[in-house]
Write a structure and sequence with these properties.
GO terms for molecular function: ATP binding; ATP-dependent DNA damage sensor activity; damaged DNA binding; mismatched DNA binding. The chain is 45% helix and 17% strand. The protein is α/β, with parallel strands linked by helices. The longest helix is centred in the middle third of the chain and has 27 residues. Helix 9 packs across helix 10 and helix 17 crosses helix 24. It folds into six domains: 132 residues, DNA repair protein MutS, domain I (MutS, DNA mismatch repair protein, domain I); 152 residues, MutS, connector domain (Nucleotidyltransferase, domain 5, 2-Layer Sandwich), CATH 3.30.420.110; 140 residues, MutS, DNA mismatch repair protein, Chain A, domain 3; 90 residues, Orthogonal Bundle (MutS, DNA mismatch repair protein, Chain A, domain 3), CATH 1.10.1420; 224 residues, P-loop containing nucleotide triphosphate hydrolases (Rossmann fold), CATH 3.40.50.300; 34 residues, no CATH class.
Length: 938
């Protein structure tokens, strides 16, 4: 579908001009030979070669990394007579640099030291520390907290074309499998190639796998390009449906997949490629995988890529999250909750039952404000269980990941108790009851074990130690005590020996030759050399004035003190491993708890914004009604509040069959009637708020179908199957598309795919070409939407000629954005009323934009003359130009003044009838005209 990203392939040129061939390795130093051998096995990745406290890069990798990271490029020795370029990054800052490389689209092979350098020296002076690649880091295979966005999913997606013979009744032509290995979230589905771009934008994968054998059509290639993900071609052999089925069964621990749905061969092939690639990049370490979710076009509201961009769902037009719908409605307090909210926004539902279940939960929490506050306070302490568990399963976790599981389970317990209290009194809606049951099933034994084992403050790395609570392990406590208070231990032992032997002058001493020993003066040593003390105290050395002894306990204690530090570290590592194993064994209930907390976070967040912003519960039903009363734009409304620019002006929208008929909407002058119709034709000046009105109704429908309250006084919405929005102008110069061409491509997609259950938002169709061409296209498009698509449609235009369509088409109604003229200025009232606009007010808007007065004044003169000529029926361009002083003057010069004598050439041309001339006669006339021209010039 696409070649590898250029940045990813930069390191493919090899580590030197001659490449890492066998002869090169032979002539290299032992350390460099090892590097070249490992680099040869990973030619398409930047090789991070661990050397002590640094990851070093050499040759071409060093050049690429130094440019990308902005670090100094140095050199290290020579190879084949040339300097070896080198750069490096400290191990403790590795994640910061990795993040930047991954952002640029590079792949990184992490090569670690697999043994202690001291062990290598035992093999000889020239022995090299054993090293190997332990992991390939790519954009779609990240697990580290520092490399991930806590509030966004990180999907790795595999695509495969579905052979024609295997396509089902829906005609799906592309299979997809998506896995976020940082959480185990797994989606599988199929789609039409025309819908692929929208599906990829919904998933927002960081990396896409495609087969190097695929001969994808241009539509699929464009969809992959639009996604913005890094593209990685993999061997076609990866796409083996038998291997995919086998691997998925093994990952889920089942003998059959029937319990998870039906998968086509193409879908199983994409699963196979996905899991094979994960296995390759993780060097055999297995990720956690949740049961796959089916992504079906019949279950979700389909939104194409252009409409998602137009509506600014997750990003504003400048690419920033601020200014998007997601940013406006996100009140979640946890990373998993933010990811769940974004997923719901990206894939609104079409199932009325599930939508209403979500709305029931939000509505309940709107009313139960005290419960909502308590839940949100408890949720704020809930870490990201899913990602912590994934790191632990990969062996990359640390004490803080165990702490995340502990604290997450504690938060789950607190939230569960709050919900349980309400469940036993007035009852909970189904959605919240299901959440409460999953929280109640949290593994309490694991939580208690982690609470008993872990300290409150935890280090990042397990090798740092000190994360196990005192009192949890007797052996560990003793090792720590010996490590930290070895002298005190010996003093305690000395006091006990004094009491046991009755020799008050007994001392426990130490020197570098004997280590620890017991010393007693000659006069006092006799009791220790006789039974029963002689069985405990063994003679070791006789001095002139003293005798030295030792005991088995002293020898053992000395050994423990000497190795106490290593032993303490070893015991903590063993306890960590055991706790991580217990967490891994509880993976299924932990995943359920993590999902429940995320869903609860979303429900409380949506109820919180509903109360704060005055949102109401929409009525969701089957059918094609769309009745919105007092609708507002959620993003613009918040912007107006923050800038203190006054309230947002509410507007109604009545579309589709079954929408309320003629209702009164007050405009301050006795009211005006808005007529429900399938298509509203919206006119009005620029800056009056047409685009805002168009988008706000689309966003209200989208929010309703994701299960959120909406910014309106009342909303009744027949479930949409597709949402199309074509608002604003843009070009695609990289693919040779003008603004008008992009507009026509997007309009074509709408007209070809819209159904009676769809909502279509169109703005200024046809304005990018000649007036009559554009008018004709817009006219025909409205007729097609009315007669063929029969979609609920908002169509904004400046073509006032279209306002006659309601007289011809029964289900089209004119509405306009109201303005007032005052002292040659216009005042935007932002209110939708019936009828057509009186004019475009373009010149007034130009004044507001700051055009020079000379330009706007001259434009007003020209406009007046053009309108006067139109009233007089003088539509000839020449006649109109003659009315304009500037143009008339130039024409007078060209015509040599009115009534000027006609030339001999003009008179001769008037006498010629071309249809009566033979070829020979025509040639003679040409010679005659040339002769007349010479005479005129003379």
């Amino acid at each position: 579908m696409s070649a590898r990203n250029d940045k990813t392939s930069k390191p493919d040129r090899g580590p030197s001009a001659s490449g890492p061939g066998k002869a090169v390795v032979t002539e290299a130093t032992p350390s460099m030979a090892q590097y070249l051998e490992i680099k040869t096995a990973n030619p398409d990745s930047l090789l991070w070669y661990r050397m002590g406290d640094f990851y070093e890069l050499f040759f071409e990798d060093a050049v690429v990394a130094s440019e990308a990271l902005g670090i100094v490029l140095t050199k290290r020795g020579k190879h084949l007579g040339e300097d070896i370029p080198m750069c490096g990054v400290p191990v403790h800052k590795a994640d910061d640099y990795l993040q930047r490389l991954i952002k640029f689209g590079y792949r990184v092979a992490v090569c670690e030291q697999l043994e202690d350098p001291a062990e290598a020296r035992k093999r000889g002076a020239k022995a090299v520390v054993r090293r190997d690649v332990v992991r390939l880091v790519t954009p779609g295979t990240l697990t580290e907290e520092t490399l991930l966005d806590a509030r966004a999913r990180n999907f790795l997606t595999a695509l495969a074309l579905i052979p024609l013979a295997q396509r089902g009744a829906d005609g799906a032509s592309v299979a997809l499998a998506s896995l976020d290995i940082s959480t185990g979230e797994f989606e599988v589905g199929s789609t039409l190639s025309g819908d692929l771009a929208g599906e990829l934008v919904r998933l927002s994968p960081r990396e896409i796998l495609v087969s190097d054998r695929d001969d994808a059509d241009e539509t699929c290639k464009q969809a992959v390009a639009i996604s913005g993900a890094a593209v990685t071609p993999v061997a076609g052999a990866f796409y083996d449906y038998r291997a995919g089925e086998r691997e998925l069964k093994a990952k889920l621990g089942v003998a059959e997949l029937g319990g998870f749905g039906t998968f086509s061969r193409a879908e199983l092939a994409t699963i196979g490629a996905l899991l094979k690639y994960v296995d390759l990049t993780q060097i055999g370490k297995k990720p956690l995988i949740r049961p796959p979710k089916r992504a079906s076009a019949q279950d979700i509201l389909l939104i194409d890529a252009a409409s998602r961009a137009s509506l600014e769902l997750t990003k504003a037009t400048n690419g920033d999250k601020r200014g998007s719908l997601l940013h406006a409605i996100d009140r979640t307090v946890t990373g998993p909750g933010a990811r769940e909210l974004a997923a719901r926004l990206a894939a609104p539902l079409r199932d009325v039952g599930i939508i209403n279940a979500r709305l029931d939960a939000v509505g309940y929490l709107v009313e139960a404000s005290a419960l909502r506050t308590d839940l949100r306070n408890s949720l704020r302490s809930a870490p990201d269980i899913a990602r912590a568990l994934s790191r632990l399963s990969f062996g990359r976790g640390g004490p803080r990941d165990l702490g995340a599981v502990r604290d997450g389970l504690s938060a789950a317990q607190a939230c569960g108790r709050l919900l349980e209290a309400k469940s036993g009194t007035i009852g909970l809606p189904n959605e919240l009851q299901a959440i409460a049951e999953r929280l109640a099933a949290a593994p309490a034994a694991l939580r208690e074990e982690l609470e008993n084992a872990l300290n409150e403050e935890l280090p990042l790395l397990k090798r740092d130690g000190g994360f196990i609570r005192e009192g949890y392990s007797t052996d560990l406590d003793e090792a720590r005590r010996l490590k930290e208070t070895g002298r005190q231990v010996m003093l305690e032992l000395e006091a006990r020996y004094q009491q046991q032997s009755g020799v008050k002058t007994l001392k426990v001493r130490h020197n570098n030759i004997l280590g620890y020993f017991i010393e007693v003066g000659q006069a006092s040593a006799q009791p220790l050399m006789q039974p029963p003390h002689s069985d405990v105290f063994r003679h070791r050395q006789t001095m002139a004035n003293a005798i030295r002894f030792t005991t088995e306990e002293l020898i053992a204690t000395e050994g423990k003190i000497a190795t106490a530090g290593e032993r303490a570290t070893s015991l903590e590592q063993a306890i960590f491993t055991d706790l991580a194993r217990r967490a891994d064994e509880a993976e299924v209930p932990l995943a359920a708890v993590a999902a429940a907390l995320a869903e609860l976070d979303v429900a409380t967040a949506l109820s919180d914004i509903a109360e704060d912003e005055g949102y109401t519960r929409p009525l969701i039903e089957e059918g094609t009604a769309l009745e919105i009363r007092g609708g507002r734009h959620p993003v613009v409304e918040q912007a107006l509040k923050s800038e203190r620019q006054g309230p947002f002006i509410e507007n109604d929208c009545l579309l589709g069959d079954g929408a309320a008929g003629e209702q009164q909407q007050s405009d301050g002058e006795g009211g005006s009637e808005l007529r429900a119709a399938r298509i509203w034709l919206l006119t009005g000046p620029n800056m009056a708020g047409k685009s805002t009105f168009l988008r706000q109704n689309a966003l209200i429908c989208l929010m309703a179908q994701m299960g959120a309250f909406v910014p309106a006084r009342y909303a009744r919405i027949g479930v949409l199957d597709r949402l199309f929005s074509r608002v604003g102008a843009a070009d695609d110069l990289a693919r040779g598309r003008s603004t008008f061409m992009v507009e026509m491509v997007e309009t074509a997609a709408i007209l070809n795919c819209a159904t009676p259950s769809s909502l279509v938002i169109l703005d200024e169709i046809g304005r990018g070409t000649a007036t009559f061409d554009g008018l004709s296209i817009a006219w025909a498009a409205i007729e097609y939407l009315h007669e063929v698509c029969r979609s609920r449609t908002l169509f904004a235009t400046h073509y006032h000629e279209l306002t006659v369509l309601p007289e011809r088409l029964q289900e089209v109604a004119n509405v306009t954005i109201e303005v007032k003229e005052w002292r040659d200025e216009i005042v935007f009232l932002h209110k939708v009323r019936p009828g057509a606009a009186d004019g475009s007010y373009g010149i007034q808007v130009a004044k507001l934009a700051g055009l020079p007065p000379q330009v706007t004044e001259r434009a007003a003169e020209v406009l007046a003359m053009l309108e006067d000529a139109e009233r007089r029926g003088s539509n000839s361009p020449e006649a109109i130009l003659d009315e304009l002083p500037l143009f008339a003057a130039s024409r007078a010069v060209a015509d040599k003044g009115e009534g000027a004598r006609r030339s001999a050439v003009e008179e001769a041309l008037d006498r010629i009838d071309p249809d009566e001339l033979s070829p020979r006669a025509a040639l003679e006339k040409i010679y005659q005209l040339k002769s007349l021209c010479r005479d005129d010039d003379a």
